[in-house]
Amino acid sequence: MKKVVLIVIDGLGLRKETQGNGFALADTPTFDNLFKNYPNSLIQASGQHVGLPEGQMGNSEVGHLNIGAGTIVYTGLSLIKKALNDGTYKTNKQFVEVFEDVKTNNSTLHLMGLLSPGGVHSLEDHLFKLLEAAHEYGLKKVSVHVFGDGRDVAPRSIKESLTKLLELTDKFDYNIASISGRFYAMDRDSMFDRVEKAYDALLGNTNSKFDNVLEFVDQQYSSDISDEFFVPSVNSNLKEDAFVKNGDSIIFFNFRPDRARQLTHLFVNSSLYDVKPKHEVKINKFASMMKYEGIDTIIAFDEMEVSMPIGRVLELAGKSQLRLAETQKYAHVTYFMDGGNDIEFKNSKRIMVDSLKVESYADAPHMSAEKITDELLENALNYDVTIMNYANPDMVGHTGNLKSTIEAVSFLDSQIKRVVEWAEANDVTVFITADHGNAEITEDQNNKPATKHTSSPVMLITTDKSLKLKDGILANVAPTVLDYIGVEKPVQMDQESLLVK
Question: Is 60 a known active-site residue?
Answer without folding.
Answer: yes
